[in-house]
């Protein structure tokens, strides 16, 4: 298909102000309309709007010679030997149809209805004008290409030499046009192509010192198979070579920054950075430190937000492994995509696959650590494949039979009871024992009340630095309220609360007004704030108040139901509701 066929369609050159008449109208009526509209033709349609014939001024002359009445229905003398074309067909096709059939008019149809007409005058005045525009367009395109373009005829005479060629070889178009190419470039590829008839692709050449180019040349044949021209493109790759050097420099910068980032991660995620006085946390750190330098698989369990990924990163940083720490959340990726994420895939492995394939998390973590978060949500069929990888140390990308060895240390984490899932046939027992060679249990934050203040201070410091907000004073009551909150979201929730308090702080001060309302409603500010922290009566009252609040919320204010849950008389409940102003 030629460029003109792509660019110019019949709709671009057709006339839309044509005349239509019904087949039962008279010749006189049609002739009057043609004269009034300065048209040489009229299209004849039936009652359904279907094109039946064309009537022209030439037909009028024939009728007059034969002495036919002008009141005769026009359909009797219309030309019914019709040729038509569609609006999306090429303008060149319209021209060829009219030349081949020696016709001066070509109706344009769309969905069986006439929407325009192409005439010989139209072709002459519009099509060839469009062709001139096209050649001007092509000339502008070639002149603005970065590649030098040279076109020679079959004798090697230069017929086209664009601006990039002028710049590249310092030879003007005015000087070289219509001259033999060999006069300027005796070893020109175009001349070789004209002699051999074979194309040449991507040959390196240095026409002048400091200029490196890649040349390609192709022969052009006519419809009879004879070479009529040769076209060469010379691409200046001097800038590309300079860019390659720049990319090498940038690569070194990235490697430096990556190393600095790893050092930053190492300082942030190490066992000394884990805050905790709680015995369970201290025991967990001790176990993690012992296994860090081994290749043993580790299973970290605990509720969401207890710091499982922090422990996993700390184990990796202490392991001495030089590869990447790669994390994947098994519950966040659909089961049918999890395999491709873990093992990768080759080109064409499935619909929607990236053209060049994709490396999997196992390969990316080779020599490092692969952290499988929420392992309890991994589909059973995927568990079988995981077990095979752990046994053999070999993976296969989707769509490939090539075995790839992997040396990724596995650390898994879950907030679910895997032994319960095993009994329910939702988790493989053999995979569990492969993953849980060493098991680390992290306690919830509500069981680590002694750590809340230290964790809060750590987050106050981190968020203040991150947000550029200086915190100068934190009211002591804030710590006591935070300590007595139940923290269903664990450490993650505490960090989010601290971030909220910092960004909403006034003049760098944090007080009880900074604490979210839902925490204040759950924990009364008066709790454990007396001078005597061992005042048993106050402690009992606080526990009663908090328990009654939780139960009343749970039963949605139903006092009879609340008394039953609390195992007290309804009258006692009423008394305590009044006493604690609940």
Rounded to the nearest angstrom, the distance between the terminal CA atoms is 84 Å
Total number of β-strand segments? Answer: 22
Helicity range of the residues? 40-55%
Class inferred from helices and paired strands: alpha/beta
How would a crystallographer describe the biggest sheet? 5 strands, antiparallel
Form type: elongated
CATH architecture level-2 label of the largest domain? 3-Layer(aba) Sandwich
The spatial strand order of the largest sheet comes to 8-7-11-10-9
**Total count of helical runs of at least 4 residues:** 24
Tell me the β content: 15-25%
Oligomer: single chain
Q: Assign the CATH class of the largest domain.
A: Alpha Beta
Low-confidence stretches: 1-6
> Averaging pLDDT over every residue, what do you get?
84
Query: CATH superfamily of the largest domain, please?
Result: P-loop containing nucleotide triphosphate hydrolases
Keywords: ATP-binding, CBS domain, Nucleotide-binding, Transcription, Transcription regulation
GO molecular function: ATP binding; sequence-specific DNA binding
InterPro entries: AAA+_ATPase, AAA_lid_NorR, CBS_dom, CBS_dom_sf, Homeodomain-like_sf, HTH_Fis, P-loop_NTPase, PAS
Protein name: PAS modulated sigma54 specific transcriptional regulator, Fis family
